[in-house]
Specification:
Length: 185
């Protein structure tokens, strides 16, 4: 919180006392594609995968969330407000869980919480914009090298077929790229 607000230690403690922290085992589905979200999350420990299942049955991974990242579904623009994604814990995960129904109440009770949330969303959105632009302009090997540089723990934490889906390639292509990168070619 110190990074995002100017709350005193006492004010931070008051916010912390209102937070709900839950542990979820590996494999827990936090939200299913098609369901209306009722919670938002902040990862203290663990890894969560965001993916969609297309009409042909193909799963496409669009994000991996790890420590100190927020998970929220921004879908108020949709008439049915259903999530386009499923969120699943890839590891035993510890999350701060926020109820969307009482979000306004929390912001009124802790006035700097709204500013903190806005700043976090703005920073996250900016990072996502940059990552998406870089992703679109890069080759699969460049995407893999970027992950090695920016989020190296994903390589060990995430199943290869899911990482390949995230990179927009087949698992076989990912294996070839990994070999080339390891051998420095």
């Amino acid at each position: 919180m110190s990074r995002w607000t100017t709350l005193t230690v006492e004010e931070q403690q008051a916010v912390i006392e209102d937070l709900v922290i839950k542990e979820y085992p590996k494999g827990t589905v936090l939200l299913r594609q098609g369901d209306v979200p009722t919670h938002c999350y902040f990862i203290l420990q663990g890894c969560v995968r965001q993916f969609a299942v297309h009409e042909d049955g193909r799963e496409v991974t669009s994000q991996f969330y790890t420590e100190e990242q927020a998970i929220a579904v921004f879908n108020l623009h949709r008439s049915d407000q259903a999530s386009a994604y499923t969120f699943t814990c890839l590891e035993d995960t510890v999350l701060v869980v926020g109820e969307l129904a009482i979000e306004e109440e929390m912001y009124n009770k802790h006035t700097q919480l709204a500013n903190m949330t806005r700043r976090m969303i703005e920073a996250n959105f900016g990072q996502m914009q940059e990552a998406f632009a870089a992703f679109m302009a890069s080759t699969p090997e460049e995407r893999f090298r970027a992950i090695l540089h920016e989020r190296p723990s994903l390589i060990e934490r995430v199943p290869q077929h899911q990482l390949a889906s995230y990179l927009g390639i087949t698992p076989e292509s990912l294996s070839r790229i990994k070999k080339r990168v390891q051998h420095g070619t």
